Amino acid sequence: MIRFWLLCLNILIVSSLYTQEVYNKNIFGFATSNTFTFFDTRADTFKEKVQKISPQVLRFPGGAVGNFYHFDKAAYGMKIKEIDSLITGKFPKRARGLISYSKKKGHANNYIDDFIALAKFSNSRAVLVANVLTEKTEDVLNMIRKIKDSGIEIIGVELGSELSNKSYFDKGLLIDDYIKKSELISNAIKISFPEILTAVVAAPLLENKNHRHYIWNKKLSHLSFYDAIIVHSYAKVVKGKDQYGQMILEENEGEKESSFLIYKKRVLDFFKDYYPKEIKNYNSIFDDTPIWITEWNLQYSKKTGNTLLQGLFVANYFLELISKDDYKSIELTTFHNLAGRDFGGSIFQMKNNKTYIQSTFYPIQLLSNIFSTEKLKVFSKKLTDDIFQYSFFVHKKLKKVIVINWNDEEFFIDKNSFNKKTEYYSKYLFDLNSDNEGLIYKTSNIEGGRILIKPYSLTLVE
Question: Which CATH architecture has domain 3-14+377-461?
C-alpha cells in the first residue's frame, strides 16, 4: 500500500519555533584516533573526502592513544613502558602495532602538525584529550598553545578518556587518583586559557552503590573544577559479549533478513526509550552539567558494520540530538571515527594500502548540508514508529525536510516549494557499501506534485 503524508506545517509547529534555539553545530564532530597513522591526511584525495562531510569539530589525539600521548615525541609519542604499567587488555598490543607502523612509514613528526593542517583545511574547531596519567602539565599546555596559536578555536579539553574502565583499575587507578591528577591539569588550563572548557570522565551507569563506577560518578558529582562530563555511547543491537564499544562474541539470531529486522527494532527502542533514560540519569547525577559525547557509534560488529542499518542509525542519532529536548544537555559530540584500519567503525577504512568508503560516509555527507547552513531551527515528528521527519526553518519559513524511513514500504510527501532531492537507500538493511552496486546515494531534481520516499532510506528535500 502506498501512503501519502502531508508535511506537518501547522500552526503548532510554526508557533513552537518562537521558543526554539538554533541547534548547536558542535554536535557534528569527529574523532581522529589513528587517522594520522594510517592516512596521508595532507593528500588531495583525502582532503576532498573530508571536505564533503564538512566537520564542525575534530578531536585529537584520541581515546586510549590520547591517554598516552606526548607532545614532544614522534607520531603520538607513546611510550611502551608507560602503557604496560598503566593499562591491561588489548591496548598494549595495539599500541605496539601503531608505533611499529608509524616507524615503518617514517613518521618522524608529531601528529599534532597533521591535525592542525587538517583542522585548518576543514575550518573545524577542536576538542583535545589531555594525557593526565603521565604527561607534564606544561606539555599539556604546550599542546593547547600550539593549536591555539595556529588559529584553531579550541572548545575544550577532555581530562583523559575512559579512565574508569577496568583496564586502568586493574593497574591501580582509583577515582581519588583521577580527581587529583585531572583537577591539577584543569586548574592549570584555566589559569593559562580561561576561555577553554574542561571535562571529566564519567563512568558507565550502575545501580549498585558499592560498585566503583557508582562511587566514581558520585565523587565527581560533588566537585566543581570542570565544566562538562564525558560520556561514550555505543548502541548495542547484536546479542553477544561486548567490550569497550566492540562486539567480541556475536550470537546468531536467524537468517540475515529476519535478524536485521530484530536489529532495527533495537535501534528504534534505543532512540525511543534507552538513550533518553540514560541521558536523564546522567543529568540527575551531575545536576544537568553539560555532556560531551566524544565517542559514539553503533556497537562495532561484523554483522552490522558498513551496512545500510549503520548508516541510517548514524543519521538518526545526529538528528535526534539536535531536535529533542531529552538531549539538551549534550553540547558536543565526536563520532568515532573519521579514518582508521577498523571495519565498521571509521568512515574511511585503510586496508591493504587501499581506502574503502564505509556506509556512514553518505548519510554524514547528506547531513553536512544542515550543519553548514546558518540560522536553521529544527522541528521533529514521528509519522509512525519507524518513520522520522525533521523540518528545518529559517525565520519560520520551511527550508529543508529530512525523512528517515525505517519501513519496507515507500510513501509520498507533498512537494511544497522544494525542487531538489538527495537520497540514500538500498533494498535491504544488511546491504553493504562494499557490495558490487553498493549503497545508493544520489541527488535529483523534483518533478511532479509529490515526492517519493523510498523504503529503508534517508531523504533530504530542499
Answer: Sandwich (2.60)
Summarised one tens digit per residue, pLDDT across range 38-91 is 999 999 999 999 999 999 999 999 999 999 999 999 999 999 999 999 999 999
DSSP per position, 325-375: GGGTTEEEEEES-SEES-SSSSSEEEETTEEEE-TTHHHHHHHHHHHSSTT
Domain coordinates of the chain in residue numbers? 3-14+377-461, 24-371
- The CATH class, in words, for 24-371 is alpha beta
> pTM of the full predicted structure?
0.95
- The total of other beta-carbon atoms located within 10 Å of residue 162's CB is 20
Judging by beta carbons within 10 Å of its beta carbon (0-12, 13-18, 19+), is residue 114 exposed, middle or buried? buried
How far is residue 280's CA from residue 295's CA, in Å, rounded to a whole number?
18
Give the H or E element holding residue 57. strand 57-60
Q: Is the distance from CB of 297 to CB of 245 less than 8 angstroms? A: yes
Beta bridge partners of 269: none
Residue where the block lists cell 552496486:
437
Name residue 43's beta-bridge partners: none
